Amino acid sequence: MTKEKIFSIILLAVVCVFSAITVNKKLVENDDMRIYANAIKFYQEENYQDAYYNFSKISNFSILKPASLFRQARCATIIGDNQSAIRNYSLLLKRYPDCQLYPVSEYNLAVLLYEKKDYFLAKRHFKHLIRKFKDTEVAIASKFYLGLIEENPELLLEYLKLSPNGLLSQNAIDTLIKWNTKFSNADNLIIAKSYLSRDKFNEALEYYQKTSLPDSWAGYAKTLYKLGKYNEAKNITTKGISIYSSRVDKKEIYDNIDCFVSLSDSKLTTIKYLYSLNPKSQGADYLMFLMAKYAPVSQTPQMYEKLYYAFPDGQFSGEALYKTFYSKINQRKYEEALKLGRIHLAKYGNTNSAPAVMYWMAKIYEKKHMNDMAKSYYKGVLSKYPDSYYAMRANSKLHNGQKMLEDRELEVKPVVFPIKNKTEANLAIKLAKLKDYDFVQELYKDDEFVQSWIEYEKGNYTHSAFLAREAMDELEEKPNFKDSRWRLVYPIHYYNYVQKYANTENPIIILSIIKEESHFNPNATSCVDALGLMQLMPATADEIAKAYGLSNNLYNPENNIHLGSLYYAKMRRSLNDKDMSAIMAYNGGWAAVTRWKNRLNYTDMDDFVEKIPYPETQTYLKKVLRSYWNYSNIYQ
Predict the structure, then answer these.
(1) d(CA 89, CA 109)
(2) What are the structural domains, with CATH classification, of the chain?
(3) Residue 132 to residue 147: CA distance in whole angstroms
(4) Is the dihedral of CA 282, 307, 378, 371 positive or negative?
(5) pLDDT digits (tens, 9 = 90+) for 50-99
(6) What is the model's pTM?
(7) Residues with Cβ < 8 Å from 196, sequence gap 6 or more?
(8) Exposed, middle or buried, 159 (CB in 10 Å: 0-12/13-18/19+)?
């Protein structure tokens, strides 16, 4: 036999063995998936004995093994077999030190050891968690248990300070009282804040009354507002703003101002009164912002300009500078406006008003016939703020006034797991296929996109979109529209009904209205009793239903979309078939839009939008058009 033949036979044998191993591995993996699915079924049925047994059958080399060990430990804990739980957690820590489940597994193990009164081992694990996983939930909770073991009140108080509404907070307070701990002013304040954060207002009041007013007045007053003791709350608020504003958190001051103003019949008068108490207080910038918001339109530009120059680095200065910038444009003081615009983009480039500033700077350069500069700013809006309303406007400008609201067909694409090319993602996808969503949440509790995906998988579409929107807003640099995460921010639901009933209307506009009106919650009810996906008022729906012989069941998705599409078509016909006008009218009413068009002094549609006197309608229009733009790009 030649060497070549021997080599060929060996090679063939190796290939056969490798193929057999691959096939066997695939069969084992399929078995593991089936076993895990059965185990989860038993677990959800609260049959923890059978669940434990099935989880134990997962093969040692399976990607599901860490999850199965964790689940075994949970089952064992529930049925009272703490020794088995300790054994499974210990095995998980030993075999999978880099697993994302390591911190929570070690914490659960340490708690079981504490309950077993093995304080030496428990203490070692709690200290390790505090050192290695600093500032995480398990590290903070470990301080509570370490405090119990060492009988250290300072550690319990530190836990309360870091986790005022944590699961162990009441236990911490009860233990401190049991130990006859002598509380300082700072300690009483920590306990009061814990009770307030858990809506235990009477208990919070008891401890606020033991604190020094300069340090506690904002929380003290908020507690009194919650208990309906308005006069006392208002007295503390005025005293706090007058004298002690520098001693408390700004957010608490803003909350107190909101409570105080909400109880007033004349908001502007009340805001001016609070401002007069101490124009240099920590809440003065917010009060000036509110004064500008509620002031007559003729006074608003000066108010915002005053706010910006008084508090150039304040929380509301970015919005104030934008308003000042825009007022200079209306006064045709273009050089001043450009100067302010450059300052805004340098200081507040990541704020909500930044795309508006960049867009209007482009328009100024266009007016000055500096077309290259105008183009660069329009392109800047598209690259830096691609999902904004102003990106849509900039795109139209760059394409010679291309029609913004073109009737297009969307290609419906699936929502997929939002993390790629990670070993953990493989585990998460497998667990999700097995509907073990709780476990995926445990793996990715700090990733809002994954949390959004889980909510989507569970059918909680409204909450899913909300989480994804927050996560996307936090990204300094937005991904391109091919990125699957955009589909979580802008999911498509009920599109078959939208296409069926849009008739001559643009279906993407109808879809965008649904997105902004109800976020796809068919049972949505507004504070003014607008109902369903397209948030129709019952009286309006009755009128349309009678005219067309339809049902007026507004909680039925198909019926709601049918009636809403007919109402939108009516608005559009009454406003010269203009979609932007119809969108405004859908929110603010046909009469209001007609009145604004007749009375407002505006140069073009962009200027008109910025001057819409109903802030809610202006924001609504921009949101619907932003959704239209994003749907058109994500689902091209």
Answers:
(1) 6
(2) 3-198 (1.25.40.10), 199-294 (1.25.40), 423-489 (no CATH), 495-634 (1.10.530.10)
(3) 18
(4) negative
(5) 999 999 999 998 888 999 999 999 999 999 999 999 999 999 999 999 88
(6) 0.81
(7) 164, 204, 219, 222, 223
(8) buried
